[in-house]
Please model this.
Amino acid sequence: MIYQDILDDRALQSYLADLNARARKCGANGELDVAGLRDRILASSGRCEWCGENLVRGTFELDHVVSLNRGGRNETDNLVVACPDCNRRKGQKHPARFAAEIFNSTGRRTILVDKILQHFMLEPREQLPLFAANQRTEDLSDTCDRNDQPRYRW
Ligand SMILES: [Zn+2]
Model:
């Protein structure tokens, strides 16, 4: 979708249908509606909530912070506005892993990144080698079974 002054209802409806269909396919809980989606988009103030990039008049996507196949809910409090680049780079990664990546690559600590790093009590510069270099990361792995994951809300 394009972030603009007036959010086109048809674009929202079609995006919404896609999100809900994907969630059903993954067996995720929750169903989004247009009003919730619009509120969530406006709450981002037109910035990628991961990296902080300005999205006004640019393309944006909605990202499930805890991805659906990790047990994330298909609800507005598990959704953030993301630039296509962040959404693609994040994929199915654990949110803490991606938050550390963002901080280390951009040096920016957006509200979302800050919230996630605090939630997991990670100081990214010290903790990043953990993700890259050893196996003590079961709970942050990218391939965990969705049933093993607690349900987080943001
Ligand atoms: Zn971004």
Remarks:
- The CA atoms of residues 72 and 151 lie 6 Å apart.
